[in-house]
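Subject: Protein record for review, amino acid sequence with backbone structure tokens
Category: Structural biology, sequence-to-fold work with a learned token vocabulary.
Format: Residues in single-letter code; tokens as whole numbers, each standing for a residue.
Body of memo: The sequence and its backbone structure tokens, given next.
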Amino acid sequence: MPPDAPSQLSPDELQRYHRHLILPGVGEEGQQRLKAARVLIVGAGGLGSPAALYLAAAGVGTLGIIDEDVVELSNLQRQVLHGTRDVGRAKVASAETRLRDLNPHINVATLHARLSSVNALGILRDYDIVIDGTDNFQTRYLINDACVLLGKTNIYGSVFRSDGQASVFCTDEGPCYRCLFPEP
């Protein structure tokens, strides 16, 4: 896990995030909160790719990405984080290169592995929010259960053909994914 980003905004960051800083409700305090945030994205595919790009551009201080796959040519039409030159590379390596290029002020922590019942609690423990960008029920329930045990916010999304769903589960404030969908 990389160290936390310094909480103060540098002159370059003040210029980079200028449009955020002038928004009511964000300002410098809100941008510093983004910089202090630690978000884990599970899956660097069709859902995780745009999430990672936008969070990096917004200045989320630490982005963690876990994925065991490599970039394939057939991924490129929907996985916007990766490019043609990345075909054959680990998705997390491709993601790290692109995100560091997009915003050198953030920390990017990658893990080329599958999230499992053996490693989930240890990985999720260091993050404030977990984004579920996976495409299988087994991992989705694993993420949910780990978030419930650790008291982490779980942001879930799924896409099937042209339909999509998204939900935010804050376990202290309401139900979890398993409460909504008890069985796969």
